[in-house]
Design a protein that fits this description.
Strand content of chain A: over 45%
Order of helices and strands of chain B: EEEEEEEEEEE
Largest interface: A-B, 25 and 25 residues
Structural class of chain A: mainly beta
Radius of gyration of chain A: 14 Å
Oligomer: heterodimer
Helix content of chain B: under 10%
Order of helices and strands of chain A: EEEEEEEEEEE
Number of helices of chain B: 0
Largest sheet of chain A: 6 strands, mixed
Low-confidence stretches of chain A: none
Number of strands of chain B: 11
Chain lengths: 113, 112
Protein backbone atom coordinates (compact mmCIF):
# COMPACT_ATOMS: atom_id res chain seq x y z
CA UNK A 1 0.00 0.00 0.00
CA UNK A 2 1.32 3.45 -0.92
CA UNK A 3 1.85 5.93 1.88
CA UNK A 4 -0.27 8.52 0.05
CA UNK A 5 -3.09 7.60 -2.33
CA UNK A 6 -4.55 10.01 -4.85
CA UNK A 7 -7.00 9.20 -7.62
CA UNK A 8 -5.14 10.01 -10.86
CA UNK A 9 -8.32 10.82 -12.76
CA UNK A 10 -8.62 12.26 -15.30
CA UNK A 11 -11.46 14.40 -14.00
CA UNK A 12 -13.50 16.52 -16.39
CA UNK A 13 -16.20 18.98 -15.21
CA UNK A 14 -18.12 21.92 -16.72
CA UNK A 15 -17.14 25.49 -15.97
CA UNK A 16 -18.69 26.78 -12.76
CA UNK A 17 -18.87 23.36 -11.07
CA UNK A 18 -17.53 22.64 -7.60
CA UNK A 19 -14.52 20.34 -7.79
CA UNK A 20 -13.43 18.02 -5.00
CA UNK A 21 -9.95 16.49 -5.04
CA UNK A 22 -8.91 14.02 -2.35
CA UNK A 23 -5.99 12.15 -0.88
CA UNK A 24 -5.74 9.50 1.81
CA UNK A 25 -2.63 8.60 3.75
CA UNK A 26 -1.43 5.97 6.17
CA UNK A 27 1.34 7.65 8.22
CA UNK A 28 -0.14 9.35 11.29
CA UNK A 29 3.09 11.33 11.80
CA UNK A 30 2.29 13.69 8.91
CA UNK A 31 1.65 17.19 10.24
CA UNK A 32 1.92 19.49 7.25
CA UNK A 33 -0.35 19.18 4.24
CA UNK A 34 0.04 20.85 0.89
CA UNK A 35 -1.67 21.10 -2.48
CA UNK A 36 0.28 21.91 -5.61
CA UNK A 37 -1.00 22.88 -9.05
CA UNK A 38 1.04 21.92 -12.09
CA UNK A 39 0.35 23.21 -15.56
CA UNK A 40 1.63 21.21 -18.51
CA UNK A 41 5.42 21.36 -18.92
CA UNK A 42 5.81 23.60 -15.86
CA UNK A 43 7.03 23.09 -12.30
CA UNK A 44 4.41 22.60 -9.57
CA UNK A 45 3.36 25.72 -7.68
CA UNK A 46 2.26 25.71 -4.06
CA UNK A 47 -1.47 26.37 -3.90
CA UNK A 48 -2.47 25.69 -0.31
CA UNK A 49 -0.66 24.80 2.89
CA UNK A 50 -2.25 23.66 6.14
CA UNK A 51 -0.95 22.50 9.46
CA UNK A 52 -2.77 19.72 11.31
CA UNK A 53 -6.56 19.31 11.12
CA UNK A 54 -8.99 21.96 10.00
CA UNK A 55 -10.02 24.09 7.04
CA UNK A 56 -8.21 26.84 5.20
CA UNK A 57 -9.79 29.07 2.59
CA UNK A 58 -8.10 31.19 -0.08
CA UNK A 59 -10.43 32.75 -2.61
CA UNK A 60 -12.16 29.97 -4.54
CA UNK A 61 -9.98 27.28 -2.95
CA UNK A 62 -10.60 25.49 0.35
CA UNK A 63 -8.24 22.91 1.83
CA UNK A 64 -9.58 20.50 4.42
CA UNK A 65 -7.61 18.14 6.65
CA UNK A 66 -9.16 15.37 8.75
CA UNK A 67 -6.31 13.72 10.66
CA UNK A 68 -8.62 11.28 12.43
CA UNK A 69 -9.64 9.81 9.06
CA UNK A 70 -6.24 10.43 7.44
CA UNK A 71 -7.99 12.25 4.62
CA UNK A 72 -7.35 15.60 2.95
CA UNK A 73 -9.38 17.46 0.35
CA UNK A 74 -9.13 20.45 -1.94
CA UNK A 75 -12.35 22.14 -3.06
CA UNK A 76 -12.49 24.53 -5.99
CA UNK A 77 -15.62 26.68 -6.23
CA UNK A 78 -16.84 28.33 -9.43
CA UNK A 79 -14.25 26.41 -11.43
CA UNK A 80 -12.66 28.16 -14.42
CA UNK A 81 -10.95 26.79 -17.54
CA UNK A 82 -7.72 28.27 -16.16
CA UNK A 83 -8.00 25.78 -13.28
CA UNK A 84 -7.31 22.96 -15.75
CA UNK A 85 -4.07 21.40 -14.48
CA UNK A 86 -2.71 18.47 -12.53
CA UNK A 87 -3.19 18.78 -8.77
CA UNK A 88 -0.76 17.07 -6.43
CA UNK A 89 -1.25 16.54 -2.73
CA UNK A 90 1.80 16.36 -0.49
CA UNK A 91 2.37 15.79 3.18
CA UNK A 92 5.35 16.04 5.43
CA UNK A 93 6.68 15.19 8.85
CA UNK A 94 9.87 16.18 10.61
CA UNK A 95 11.25 13.16 12.40
CA UNK A 96 14.65 12.54 14.00
CA UNK A 97 16.16 15.60 12.37
CA UNK A 98 15.01 14.66 8.88
CA UNK A 99 12.22 15.95 6.67
CA UNK A 100 9.93 13.27 5.28
CA UNK A 101 7.88 14.49 2.35
CA UNK A 102 5.58 12.33 0.25
CA UNK A 103 3.57 13.26 -2.85
CA UNK A 104 0.40 11.77 -4.24
CA UNK A 105 0.38 10.70 -7.87
CA UNK A 106 -1.55 13.79 -9.00
CA UNK A 107 -5.07 14.23 -10.40
CA UNK A 108 -5.47 15.64 -13.89
CA UNK A 109 -8.38 18.10 -13.96
CA UNK A 110 -10.04 19.62 -17.03
CA UNK A 111 -12.62 22.40 -16.76
CA UNK A 112 -14.74 22.57 -19.90
CA UNK A 113 -16.06 26.00 -21.03
CA UNK B 1 12.47 38.27 -7.38
CA UNK B 2 13.12 35.26 -5.14
CA UNK B 3 12.90 31.87 -6.71
CA UNK B 4 14.52 28.80 -8.15
CA UNK B 5 16.23 28.83 -11.52
CA UNK B 6 16.83 25.66 -13.48
CA UNK B 7 18.87 25.45 -16.65
CA UNK B 8 18.82 24.43 -19.36
CA UNK B 9 15.07 24.17 -19.95
CA UNK B 10 15.53 21.64 -22.76
CA UNK B 11 18.52 19.38 -23.27
CA UNK B 12 19.36 16.68 -25.78
CA UNK B 13 22.06 14.15 -25.12
CA UNK B 14 23.53 11.20 -26.91
CA UNK B 15 23.66 7.85 -25.19
CA UNK B 16 26.82 7.38 -23.17
CA UNK B 17 27.24 11.07 -22.32
CA UNK B 18 27.02 12.61 -18.89
CA UNK B 19 24.99 15.80 -18.53
CA UNK B 20 24.70 18.28 -15.67
CA UNK B 21 21.50 20.16 -14.82
CA UNK B 22 21.86 23.41 -12.94
CA UNK B 23 19.69 24.54 -10.02
CA UNK B 24 20.14 27.86 -8.21
CA UNK B 25 17.93 29.36 -5.48
CA UNK B 26 17.92 32.76 -3.80
CA UNK B 27 15.27 31.94 -1.21
CA UNK B 28 17.86 31.27 1.50
CA UNK B 29 16.41 27.79 2.02
CA UNK B 30 18.60 25.16 3.65
CA UNK B 31 17.04 22.12 1.99
CA UNK B 32 17.13 21.34 -1.73
CA UNK B 33 15.76 18.44 -3.75
CA UNK B 34 15.82 16.82 -7.17
CA UNK B 35 12.78 15.00 -8.50
CA UNK B 36 12.10 13.11 -11.66
CA UNK B 37 8.68 13.16 -13.32
CA UNK B 38 7.65 10.78 -16.08
CA UNK B 39 4.45 11.16 -18.15
CA UNK B 40 1.36 10.26 -16.15
CA UNK B 41 3.41 9.57 -13.04
CA UNK B 42 4.01 11.36 -9.81
CA UNK B 43 7.24 12.84 -8.52
CA UNK B 44 10.07 10.51 -7.61
CA UNK B 45 12.86 11.73 -5.35
CA UNK B 46 16.40 11.39 -6.71
CA UNK B 47 18.56 13.20 -4.12
CA UNK B 48 18.09 15.74 -1.38
CA UNK B 49 20.32 17.94 0.72
CA UNK B 50 19.44 19.49 4.05
CA UNK B 51 22.67 21.40 4.52
CA UNK B 52 25.77 22.45 2.59
CA UNK B 53 28.29 19.64 1.94
CA UNK B 54 25.75 16.98 2.85
CA UNK B 55 23.22 15.08 0.72
CA UNK B 56 21.25 11.84 0.82
CA UNK B 57 19.98 9.41 -1.78
CA UNK B 58 16.30 9.39 -2.53
CA UNK B 59 14.24 6.57 -3.97
CA UNK B 60 15.86 6.46 -7.42
CA UNK B 61 19.47 7.69 -6.99
CA UNK B 62 21.16 5.08 -9.19
CA UNK B 63 22.81 6.67 -12.22
CA UNK B 64 22.70 10.19 -10.74
CA UNK B 65 25.12 12.29 -8.71
CA UNK B 66 24.89 15.65 -6.94
CA UNK B 67 27.01 18.15 -5.06
CA UNK B 68 26.17 20.88 -2.54
CA UNK B 69 29.17 23.17 -2.23
CA UNK B 70 27.09 26.31 -1.78
CA UNK B 71 23.76 26.91 -0.10
CA UNK B 72 22.35 28.42 -3.30
CA UNK B 73 23.36 25.68 -5.71
CA UNK B 74 22.49 21.97 -6.10
CA UNK B 75 23.53 20.64 -9.54
CA UNK B 76 22.46 17.20 -10.73
CA UNK B 77 24.58 15.05 -13.04
CA UNK B 78 22.82 12.40 -15.06
CA UNK B 79 25.48 9.84 -15.81
CA UNK B 80 25.73 7.30 -18.59
CA UNK B 81 24.89 4.65 -15.99
CA UNK B 82 21.29 5.89 -15.81
CA UNK B 83 19.38 3.35 -17.91
CA UNK B 84 16.40 5.50 -18.88
CA UNK B 85 17.32 9.18 -18.44
CA UNK B 86 14.71 10.78 -20.71
CA UNK B 87 12.42 12.62 -18.29
CA UNK B 88 11.34 15.94 -16.81
CA UNK B 89 13.62 16.94 -13.92
CA UNK B 90 12.46 19.26 -11.16
CA UNK B 91 14.56 21.02 -8.58
CA UNK B 92 13.00 22.35 -5.38
CA UNK B 93 13.94 23.99 -2.13
CA UNK B 94 12.07 24.01 1.14
CA UNK B 95 11.57 25.61 4.48
CA UNK B 96 12.56 23.28 7.30
CA UNK B 97 10.76 21.82 9.19
CA UNK B 98 7.41 22.51 7.53
CA UNK B 99 8.39 21.02 4.19
CA UNK B 100 6.72 23.60 1.94
CA UNK B 101 8.47 22.98 -1.37
CA UNK B 102 9.10 25.63 -3.99
CA UNK B 103 9.87 24.30 -7.44
CA UNK B 104 11.82 25.50 -10.42
CA UNK B 105 10.35 25.42 -13.94
CA UNK B 106 12.00 22.10 -14.74
CA UNK B 107 14.51 20.73 -17.24
CA UNK B 108 13.39 18.34 -19.95
CA UNK B 109 16.14 15.88 -20.90
CA UNK B 110 15.88 13.78 -24.03
CA UNK B 111 18.40 11.09 -24.83
CA UNK B 112 18.77 10.39 -28.54
Amino acid sequence: QKEVEQDPGPLSVPEGAIVSLNCTYSNSAFQYFMWYRQYSRKGPELLMYTYSSGNKEDGRFTAQVDKSSKYISLFIRDSQPSDSATYLCAMSAYQQGAQKLVFGQGTRLTINP
Amino acid sequence: DGGITQSPKYLFRKEGQNVTLSCEQNLNHDAMYWYRQDPGQGLRLIYYSQIVNDFQKGDIAEGYSVSREKKESFPLTVTSAQKNPTAFYLCASSIVPTGELFFGEGSRLTVL
